[in-house]
Structure to design on (215 residues):
């Protein structure tokens, strides 16, 4: 199964450019459209932030408003067969003050993706992570959550992982400029070994008697 994952900021100000990936070119406001055509994923997961919401009396209303904004732009940009996850963000914005910890984003995303991946059928799992439109903490925490989760799941199934990111877009960019979508990492994921020191105070060893001493 092929899944394409992308963290997004607010897509309001994105411009049309020509994205190039594996010699597949196309004009779009996000490389997700080009990746969709090239990879042909079974599912696309767009990760939005609650901080883009423009209304809401309760937190459920805020998340719904943010989801509607992401969905509106995804449809406008030609993205198909997608789910939207709205993760917790932090910062002061014209629409409100969002308090919390940056790692709340990581914990939320890890848990949500774990539940999604547990429902997948057996077989090879191919995950592509596009971090082009991630902002601040969301970029690195999206990579961390996805990669770490896949390392655990790889105990049970074969997993291929690819991370991509486009060339930076300057303020003077035009719809004739070409931005390459660069492969940052492409690996077959392997299980994570134990990589922490053992505290001797918590170490428990059971010494078995030698065969000759058993009665």
């Amino acid at each position: 199964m092929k899944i394409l994952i992308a963290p997004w900021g607010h897509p309001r100000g994105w411009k049309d450019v020509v994205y190039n990936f594996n010699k597949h070119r196309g004009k779009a406001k996000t490389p997700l459209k080009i990746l969709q055509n090239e990879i042909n994923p079974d599912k696309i997961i767009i990760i939005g932030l609650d901080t883009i919401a423009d209304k809401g009396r309760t937190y459920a209303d805020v998340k719904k408003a943010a989801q509607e904004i992401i969905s509106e732009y995804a449809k406008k940009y030609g993205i198909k067969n997608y789910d939207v996850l709205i993760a917790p963000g932090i910062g002061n914005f014209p629409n409100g003050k969002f308090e919390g910890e940056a790692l709340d984003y990581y914990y939320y995303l890890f848990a949500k993706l774990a539940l999604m991946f547990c429902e997948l059928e057996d077989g090879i799992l191919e995950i592509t992570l596009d971090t082009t439109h991630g902002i601040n903490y969301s970029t690195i925490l999206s990579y961390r959550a996805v990669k770490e989760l896949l390392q655990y799941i790889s105990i049970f199934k074969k997993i291929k992982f690819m991370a991509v990111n486009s060339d930076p877009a300057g303020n003077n960019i035009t719809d004739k400029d070409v931005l390459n979508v660069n492969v940052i990492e492409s690996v077959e994921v392997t299980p994570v070994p134990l990589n922490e020191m053992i505290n001797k105070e918590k170490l428990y060893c059971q010494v078995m008697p030698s065969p000759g001493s058993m009665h």
About this structure: The longest strand covers residues 178-188. The CA atoms of residues 16 and 29 lie 4 Å apart.
